[in-house]
Amino acid sequence: GSANFFLTGLMCGATGGILSLANAFPEICCELYDSFIGGQIDKAINLHFKVFKLNSMVSGSGGVSAVKAASTLAGYFGGEPRKPLKPITEGQLKEMRNYLKKEGLIK
Question: What is the pLDDT of residues 14-34, one digit of tens each?
Answer without folding.
Answer: 999 999 999 999 999 999 999
